[in-house]
Amino acid sequence: MIKKLSPLLAFLFLFSSPLRAVDPAAMKEQANSQVMAAAQLMQKATETAQSNPTAEGRQVAISLFVEAGQMFEQAANIYQSLGPNYAAPADVQNAQQAMKACIENIQKLKQAN
């Protein structure tokens, strides 16, 4: 017995992201945007940690570093998936190093508690 797909399932199947063509230039631009936003978050986290050394201020800074680190990780993964034809290996390495810097800052702030 063959069941019919509901219209919603058919729509999701036809327009789900794995089935659409991916534009490498658009993906690189997305990664670049994530790096810029993550750098701003990292700067805000650093400023917060320095200007508000209380437990609450450290927690806010930790949250910002976590978010920035996740964004750097996502960007590194995008760069890596694009390969050297579209993204330089330095892009991957720089995003990964920035993510590691976020992790180190989180660890330092947690030790200060």
Describe the model.
- The protein has 113 residues and is an all-alpha fold.
- The chain is built from four helices and no strands.
- It is elongated.
- It starts with 6 loop residues before the first helix and ends with a helix.
- Residues 1-5 and 8-14 have low confidence and may be disordered.
Task: Describe the protein's topology.
Layout: H1 7-15, H2 24-51, H3 55-82, H4 89-111
Helix pairs in contact: 2-3, 2-4, 3-4
Shape estimate: elongated
Query: Count of helices?
Result: 4
- Could you name the ranges where pLDDT drops below 50 across 5 or more consecutive residues? 1-5, 8-14
Mean pLDDT: 86
Give the proportion of residues in helices. over 70%
Strand content: under 5%
State Rg.
Answer: 19 Å
Distance between the termini: 63 Å
Note the main sheet. Answer: none
**Number of E-state strands:** 0
Class per helix and strand makeup: mainly alpha
- Give the ordered list of helices and strands: HHHH
Concise account of the structure shown:
This protein has 113 residues and is an all-alpha fold.
Tags for this model:
disordered N terminus; 4 helices; 113 residues; mainly alpha; elongated; 78% helix
